[in-house]
Design brief:
single chain, about 140 residues, mainly alpha, 5 helices
Amino acid sequence: MIQRLHRLGAAAALTLGATVLAPLAFAQTPPPAQEQAPTQQAPTQAAPNPGPAPTNEELVDFAHAATDVVNIRKSTEPKLQAAKSDDARTKLQQAAEKQMEAAVRNNHLSVQRYEQIAMVVQTNAEVRQKVLQIMQNPAKS
């Protein structure tokens, strides 16, 4: 699930700009490639269900959660870069992921619903514009 959060967050961040939406997980180093090529291709994953259309209240909650997630990520990145070992980086990543998940829940969304709304924001220009307006004018929401 964390990898899916990362992919959705990364795609949404690219769509809205690097500081608008951030993934709930930090990219982790992928495992080294195996020496033998796989004999079969892995089945492609079906696109996750975007769920019901987000309400205006959910868009406000999403915008606030995304802002919190961005702030957590920004504050954690320098610590990750300064970490002296893989173990220290892993611990920092895990702590940040827990903080990001808590930020989502504190904004009245489940992680699953946050992912669903991120997918809608990524693919629907009208919804994306609403979220951007909320993020730019948080006092009015």
